[in-house]
Amino acid sequence: QVQLVESGGGLVQAGGSLRLSCAASGRTLSIDYMGWFRQGPGKEREFVVVIKRSSGSTSYADSVKGRFTISRDNAKNTVYLQMNSLKPEDTAVYYCAGGRYYSRSEYDYWGQGTQVTVSS
Q: How much is the pLDDT for 37?
């Protein structure tokens, strides 16, 4: 089993920045892909970004390209999501996910989520 714990959410004004962290523990060698998803009020969960831990290759949703940056620290089993130029529509619960294979929808492991609120 793998446990994922997110941190770093909060309230920020539009145009501001936040950095989320996701720390993995347990059988971390079983996950090569870690990603971020979000679910806004009244919306379905949507893909944000994924990173391949072994190579660092990334894939972003069009809605966050150029504003969000994912990175990883394999020694700490942690991935980060740097969010800049935040917009009110970025308001959502952000979830970290991990799995063995690339996906923009399904992963084996999920965190509990962290709230990000962007005020206008």
A: 98
Q: What is the per-residue pLDDT across 28-64, written as a single tens digit (0 to 9) for each?
A: 989 999 999 999 999 999 999 999 999 999 999 999 9
DSSP 18-77: EEEEEEEEESGGG--EEEEEEE-TTS--EEEEEEETTT--EEE-TTTTTTEEEEEEGGGT
Q: What six digits make up the tokens of 30? A: 């079983």
71 and 82 in contact (C-beta within 8 Å)?
A: yes
Among 5, 17, 8, 19, CA closest to 76: 5
- Other CB atoms closer than 10 Å to residue 13's CB: what's the count? 10
Average pLDDT over residues 108-115: 97
Picking from 40, 41, 42, 29, the residue whose alpha carbon sits closest to that of residue 1 is: 29
Tokens of 80: 């980060």
